[in-house]
C-alpha cells in the first residue's frame, strides 16, 4: 500500500478530480431510485402526469451527468495509472543502474525484468481498481445503507444479517490467495529465466540437439505457473456464485416481507422498488469492494517485490563529494589486495595481490582458467570492492573517488563484447557522446575495424541488431575496443578482449595500440602467450595468488607455471 500511495500521491490534482467524480457518481446513482420512487408513489399513484414528466426529465438529466462523471472517472483513472507505472518503472530503473554486480546477482536478472514489467503492471492494475471501485464502493455502500435504513428500518435486518457471511468469505479468500500470489509471481520469474536462457542460448541448444530437453524444462515451469494461476482464479471464481446465492436469498426475503408490509399499508410500492435498488447497490458495492480486497494480496506481493528493488542499496557506495581531479593520470597500484565473492568470505578468489602499473606501461595477467584474472581487473572500476587491502589510482583509493570520475579514467573492454542495438556510430558514441566522425574513424582504424566496416553498405550507420548478432565475434570485439579507445582513458583494461581475433589481426591491433597508448596504462588479461609476451610486466596468477612477476623471458626462466603455459602454446624455437 505504501508503495502505491507514494506514487499515487505524486498526482494530487488528478486524485482530487477522481474523488469529485466519485462523489458525483454516487449521488447520481442513488438519486435515480429516489426519483423513481417519487415518480411512482406521487406521480403515478395520484395520476399527476406533470409530476411524472418533471421527474422523468430529472432522471434523464441525472443519467447524462452520471455518464459524463463515469467517463471522467475512467479518463482520470487511466491518466493516474499510466503515470504511476511510468514513474515507478523510471525509479526502479534509476536504482537498478546504481546496483553493483552483487545486487544483480542477489535478485537475478530475470526477476529484475519481471519486477519492472509484470509486478509494476500488477500494482498499476490494482491502483486502477482502487481509484474506481475502491473509492466508489465504500461511499456507495455507506450511502446505500443510509437510504435503506431511511426507507424501511424493519427490512434492514435482512441486509445486516447477510454482511457477516460476506465479510467471512472475503477474509477467507484474502488469506488463501496471498501464498498463491507469491507462488505465481515466483513461477513467472522462472518462466522469464528459462525464456532468457533459451533465447540467448538458442544456438548452443540447437548444436547440442537439446530442443526436446529445453521444451520439457519450459513446459515444467509453464505448467507450474498455470497451476498456481488456476488455483488463484478458481478461488476468485468461487466467490461470485456464492455472492449471488446470498444476494438472491436476501432479495427473496425482502420481497416476501416487503409485500406483506405493502398489503398492510405500511410500505409503498415505489419505496419497495427503491429499497431493492438500494440493496442491490449496497451488496454489490460490498462485493466489488471485496474483489479489491481479494486482489490486494496479489498486488501486495508485487508491490513488495517492486519496493525491494526501490529500497535496495548498493554495497558499492558512491561518494558524490569524492575525488574528481588528480595530479597524475593512470598510475595504478594494488596493495595487498584480497577479495572473496559475497557470501563466500572463507575462500578468497584473490589473495594478497600487490603490483604497480604506470602510464606507458603494459601489464598482462595470465593463469589457468578460474585463477582470478577477470575478478582481479573487475575490482579496478569497483564492480566489486576489495575485501582487504587497497587499490589506488593516481595515489587515491578507488573507494575515495566520485564513482563517475573513477570510471571515466578507465576504458574497460569486457570478456564478452557487448554491443547495443542501434548503429555502429551509436555504439561508438556510447564511449564518447560528442565524438566526431574523424574520432570514430581513428578509433576504428586502431581497432582494425576499418576494413570490415567499409564492406558494410551503410558504413558507420550500419545497423547493429540486438546483442550484435549480425556481426562476428571478432568484429564485435574490435567494435568494443574502438568504443573504449574513443574515450582516450588513462587506464585501459582488456579482459581477454583479443581472444576472437586471428593472430595477424591480434598482432597488428596491439602494435597500433602500443603507439596510441604511450601515455596510458594498459592492462591485458589473456590466455594466449603471443598476446602478452611483449608486455612490460606479466603477472602470473594461480588460484588467486601471484606466483610470478616479470617479463616473458624472466618468467620462462623462473616461473614453472608460466613455462608450462608457454610451452603448451609456443614451439621449441620460440621458447628458446
Ligand atoms: N560472480 C561470482 N560469484 C561467485 N564466484 C565467482 C563469480 N565469478 C567468478 N567466480 C569464481 O571466482 C574464481 C575466479 O574466476 P575468474 O572469472 O576471475 O577467473 P579467470 O581467471 O578470469 O578465468 P577465465 O580465464 O576462465 O576467464 C572462479 O573460481 C570462479 O568460479
From TrEMBL:
It is found in: Cell membrane. It is a multi-pass membrane protein. The keyword Cell membrane applies. Keywords: ATP-binding, Cell membrane, Membrane, Nucleotide-binding, Transmembrane, Transmembrane helix, Transport. It holds the Pfam family ABC_membrane. SUPFAM superfamilies: ABC transporter transmembrane region, P-loop containing nucleoside triphosphate hydrolases. One of its GO terms (cellular component) is plasma membrane. Residues 332-568 form the ABC transporter domain. GO terms for molecular function: ABC-type oligopeptide transporter activity; ATP binding; ATP hydrolysis activity. CDD domains: ABC_6TM_Tm287_like. The chain crosses the membrane at residues 12-36, 56-78, 129-149, 155-174, 235-258, 278-296. Residues 19-298 form the ABC transmembrane type-1 domain. InterPro entries: AAA+_ATPase (IPR003593), ABC1_TM_dom (IPR011527), ABC1_TM_sf (IPR036640), ABC_transporter-like_ATP-bd (IPR003439), ABC_transporter-like_CS (IPR017871), P-loop_NTPase (IPR027417), Type_1_exporter (IPR039421). PROSITE patterns: ABC_TM1F, ABC_TRANSPORTER_1, ABC_TRANSPORTER_2. It comes from the Bacteria. This is ABC transporter ATP-binding protein. The lineage of its organism: Bacteria, Bacillati, Bacillota, Bacilli, Lactobacillales.
